[in-house]
Write a structure and sequence with these properties.
It contains 12 helices and 2 strands; from the N terminus they run αααααααααααββα. With 337 residues, the chain is mostly helical. A two-stranded antiparallel ribbon has the order 1-2.
Length: 337
């Protein structure tokens, strides 16, 4: 929905409009962001209720973590599926941190920003973060052990994400700086940002000129932090791309499609069209009407015929997808038979 809105808003005017227009797409996007923000608010409310009753928090954490381990540990995974699951874990952990921030803001606002209450919330926050990290470690350890996947594969995943970030900084890039990485992870920041801004506005009361000046300074500090963060991430990404020897892929151009004249040599007039093909001991030359006499192919035994057939089957198999070709729509938990 958001992509349709962006494309409709930036569509060239000379192009024939096949869409329903900017205004309907805008209302569809607003309705979607509203529903997604409501869903995240329900999650934050559930976590807030669990924080206020410690027994419920422990029960929810145990059930949620047990279901997550059970649903992924005893399945067969390949490198591409593990890559998608790693991206999903990154997105889930970041979302859980934002939910914890929302819960802490609401609780501190209820207790009139008493610093002593922050130490009451600290053990629960520490337990949630520790359980998330421990579950991810156990889950990935089981998956890599049972599927014979080495730990070096995570360096490839990091290089793939770094390649996405570096490629989005090129002049001919079609996406925003962080949009390609967010797409690969399936992360949609707009509903989460809308909910966080609404919670901050309702929790922090701004009154007086001094408060507004502090708010402006805080905003400028966040902008500066974002710029510094983008510079550091870009530098680290360049280092990882060079370390993985993926610099050549940044400057690759799509191969030109063969023209119709190349497919029909008879339309090229008097130009010579020569095709040479070699298969074992046979050689043929087309276009100049000179062919070498064919020689009988040597007889092969049954074992050699079996090996030749197996080699041809391996040749015609579809190659495995590269990590850079995996999009955000790949389901992480699919079982591979």
């Amino acid at each position: 929905i958001l992509d349709a809105l962006y494309w409709t808003a930036t569509e060239p005017k000379e192009r024939k409009r096949d869409s329903i227009g900017v205004i309907p797409h805008f209302f569809m996007a607003v309705f979607y962001v509203f529903l997604h923000a409501i869903l995240i608010m329900v999650q934050a409310s559930t976590l807030n209720v669990a924080f206020n009753s410690h027994k419920s928090l422990l029960t929810i954490m145990m059930s949620n973590n047990f279901v997550e381990i059970k649903g992924s540990v005893f399945k067969k995974f390949e490198k591409n599926n593990l890559f998608q699951m790693s991206n999903s874990d990154i997105k889930e952990r970041f979302t859980s941190y934002v939910l914890l921030l929302i819960v802490c803001l609401r609780n501190m606002e209820q207790f009139s920003w008493n610093p002593d209450h922050l130490w009451v919330l600290f053990p629960d926050v520490f337990m949630v973060v520790t359980s998330e990290i421990a579950v991810d470690i156990i889950k990935h350890a089981f998956i890599t052990k049972f599927n014979d996947i080495t730990a070096d594969v995570y360096s490839e995943y990091r290089a793939s994400l770094a390649f996405d970030l570096v490629s989005s900084r090129q002049k001919n890039a079609c996406t925003d700086y962080s949009d390609s990485v967010a797409r690969r992870m399936g992360f949609i920041p707009l509903p989460l940002a809308v909910l966080l801004i609404r919670v901050v506005m309702s929790s922090v009361k701004v009154q007086g000129a001094l408060s507004y000046s502090c708010l402006v300074l805080f905003y400028l500090g966040l902008v500066t932090l974002k710029v510094l963060n983008s510079i550091v991430l870009l530098g680290k990404s360049c280092v990882y791309v060079k370390r993985a020897n993926m610099e050549d892929k940044l400057f690759e151009r799509p191969a030109p499609t063969p023209s119709s004249s190349a497919k029909s040599p008879s339309k090229q007039g008097d130009a010579a069209y020569t095709v040479q093909c070699r298969k074992d001991a046979q050689t043929c030359t087309l276009g100049n009407r000179t062919t070498e006499p064919e020689q009988p192919a040597p007889s092969l035994s049954k074992e050699e015929e079996g090996e030749t057939q197996a080699a041809s089957e391996m040749k015609h198999r579809t190659p495995k997808k590269d990590l850079l070709e995996i999009d955000r729509f790949t389901i992480c938990g699919n079982r591979i038979d």
